[in-house]
Design goal:
The chain is mostly beta strands. It has helices at about 30-35, 45-60, and strands spanning about 5, 10, 15-20, 95-100, 105-115, 120-130, 140-145, 160, 165-175, 180-190, 195-205. Helices cover about 10% and strands about 35% of the residues. A 5-stranded antiparallel sheet has the order 4-5-6-9-8, with no helix packed on it. Strands 1-2-3 form a 3-stranded antiparallel sheet.
Length: about 210
Amino acid sequence: MCSRPQDDKFVVAGRFTQAALPVTVGGVDATLRRRVRVRSGSLSTLVSVLALGAACSASEASPPADGGDAAPGAGGLTGDVSCSDDPRVDAYVAGITREGERGTLSFRLDASDPAPPAKGGNALEASVVDAEGNPVAGQLGIVLVMPDHGHGTQVEPVVSYDEATERFTLAPVYLFMAGVWRVTLELRDESSKIRDRASFYFCIEG
């Protein structure tokens, strides 16, 4: 799982955890030498942790301020990355539908721009229907996670609802890194309790 240092904290799956040590990758500074007493046999573990942090930092870049497409070669994985054969991945088609986990609602992705979803900024249109097929409004939330890495995205999508089309628009859906992304839609009632949720898995190549 990749985590990013931020003001002496580590961001892990959307939560902040205080960093145990003020370290700098690429060398052990005087502060570290004064504050850390490495026991015999554990130095290699410390070096491995620092190397992992360096790799994660190199593979992830800050998103554009507007959540638009990342510059070529910036952020995420580069080169040949393919997950199209992953059994979890959904083949995107307009109107792809998933029944909610609780069986009370169904969630449909009506459109994606670009289609299929790609690395960078995306805009999704979605609708929710009940067991009788009637459109359902409410508070729609979206959760973006790379399950194989344990992190989400840095840009929070804005969700709006069009009463005329009875569809939700979610943008920007910023998928900044190549790999498998889980897109979870959840509908809440007026008291903010979750009525139902469903997940879609997409392969983002890059």
